[in-house]
Amino acid sequence: MKSTRKPFSKDILHIDNIEAVCNDIITKLRTDVSKKLQRRGAVIGISGGIDSSVCMALSALAFGPKKVTAIMLPEQDSSDDSKMLAKKLATKFGVTETLIEDITKALDGFGCYKRRDEAIARVITNFNPEVDKAKIEIKQDVASNLPPAFSITVIKPDGEVISKLLPVKEYLQIVASTNFKQRSRMSMLYYHAERLHYAVIGTPNKHEVEQGFFVKYGDGGADVMPIGHLYKTQVYQIAKYIGIPQEIIDRTPTTDTYTAEQTQEDFFYQMPFESMDLIWYGWENDYPADEVGKVMGRTTKDIENIYRNFERKRKTTAYLRMRPIF
Amino acid sequence: MNTVTEKKDIIRKYIIESTFDDVEKIKDDTLIFEEGILDSMGLLFLIEFLNEEFKINTSDEELVAENFQSINSILTFIESKM
User: Fold this and answer.
1) Which structural domain range is residue A51 located in?
2) Does the beta-carbon distance from B43 to A144 stay under 8 Å?
3) What's the total number of domains in chain A?
4) What are the chain B neighbours of A165 within 8 Å (beta carbons)?
5) Which residue intervals define the domain Carrier in the entry (chain B) (predicted)?
6) Does residue A5 sit within a domain?
7) CB–CB of B39 and A315 under 8 A?
8) CB of B63 less than 8 A from some CB of A
9) Which residue of B has its CA nearest to A147?
10) Which tens digit of pLDDT belongs to each residue from A278-303?
11) Of A36, A163, A292, B21, which residue is the least packed, with the fewest Cβ within 10 Å?
């Protein structure tokens, strides 16, 4: 039988009827929150990033702005821009119930910063957390056929950059420490959700869910995830359609987790969103590597290695998506 | 000083003990990452093991398939560093 599948192209993920897709998400949000979860509104953490902005706007359109509580959850390492953009977004969509909950003291109580900095200092012995900036990143090419490993990069006040491959114990301690951030935010969101009898809206997109770029019981802890099925470029398409402020759309996606500036590409994805979306779609829908390679300007071998990288990420992070086993 | 065969056996024993895989499955030239025997965390723990067992430090630049893809590659890598 002749295949009716669309040939692979750079437009393959473009949403043709954007209005219908938005309406479907809005209708589903209403049904999920009011009928399935039996909650009367939505609590959402907003960071000034594209995903949380789109989720907040969709929630305001679904429930009405008065039934949405938007919460900024900064801590000492958060960028000041985040707060300003989050405020602008809430104003634009008429969400008046906006709160700022600074979680720095809670994180201090957990020893988040101390535990993280101790691990960094074991690898970079002259690390001074008072003045140096630090981040973790993957330096290998996404098309490498070895699994990725993280390096720690420290930036001194004079601009000197020191980078080392992270030994496993230090890598795990740094990640476990910084995960206090997402888990503390989740606790605060549920405090407000329970106080108001609202549901918590989760903001991960399809890549974050499927590649495991979220913290279990942290930003992965939510009642509904309205954009969990959407590719990042589709989230941008929706953002433009519903009128997310241009500064938010133009901003490079960051993790806002480490003291040094860090894009999500450096930290985890290893390639730009536009390419990742398309190659992921190709992999997920069994498009042959040579067909995808021709469109993306990459060799068949590169695409095969990237497919393997995706497969590895989904397999390695399956634990994050699992419910407790009993 | 361990012989080449002893070193290979030490590496194989480590992989088997950490993955519970069948001893028959892991030959000297088995592609341990491509075949999914070890994942990304497995690579990090392997680097730690090589450091503890053979006093081998691995840098960012050395993290390439040629040095880690099989027991043979790992052996060549550690021999070059000893």
Assistant:
1) 18-109+173-321
2) no
3) 2
4) 47, 58-60, 63
5) 2-82
6) no
7) yes
8) yes
9) B40
10) 999 999 999 999 999 999 999 999 99
11) A36
Identify from B55, B58, B60 which residue to disrupt to test chain A contact, counting A C-beta atoms within 10 A and taking the largest count.
B60
In angstroms, what separates the C-alpha of B70 from chain A's closest C-alpha?
A: 11
Q: Poorest-confidence range of A15-19, A107-111, A257-261?
A: A257-261
The class (CATH top level) of B4-81 is mainly alpha
User: Do residues A102 and A241 both lie within one domain?
Assistant: yes
Residues A312 and A254 occupy one common structural domain: yes
**Contacts with A211 from chain B: Cβ below 8 Å:** none
Angle, helices A18-30 vs A232-242, to 10°: value is 90
List residues of A whose CB lies inside 8 A of any B CB: 139-140, 144-149, 151, 163-169, 171, 308, 312, 315-316
Whether residues A69 and A197 fall in one domain: yes
Would you call B42 an interface residue with chain A, using a CB distance cutoff of 8 Å?
yes
Residues of B in contact with A307 (CB under 8 A): none
Q: Do residues A284 and A185 share a domain?
A: yes
Determine contact: B41 vs chain A, CB below 8 A.
Answer: yes
Residues A128 and A273 in one domain: no
Alpha helices, DSSP H only, in chain A?
A: 18-30, 50-63, 80-92, 104-110, 112-123, 168-196, 206-211, 232-242, 246-250, 264, 273-284, 289-296, 300-316, 318-321
Query: Does the beta carbon of B66 lie under 8 angstroms from any beta carbon of chain A?
Result: no
Residue of A nearest to B58 (CA): A165
Q: What is the pLDDT of residue A282?
A: 96
Please indicate, yes or no, if residue A317 is contained in any of the structural domains: yes
Q: Is residue A121 part of a domain?
A: yes
**Do both A67 and A207 map to the same domain?**
yes
Do residues A74 and A82 make contact, with C-beta atoms less than 8 angstroms apart?
yes
Sheet with A133-138, side-by-side order of all strands: A133-138, A150-155, A161-165
ipTM: 0.85
Can you say how many angstroms the Cα of residue A48 is from the centroid of all Cα atoms in its chain?
12
SS3 B55: coil
Residues A243 and A296 in one domain: yes
pLDDT in tens, A142-190: 667 788 888 999 999 999 999 999 999 999 999 999 999 999 999 999 9
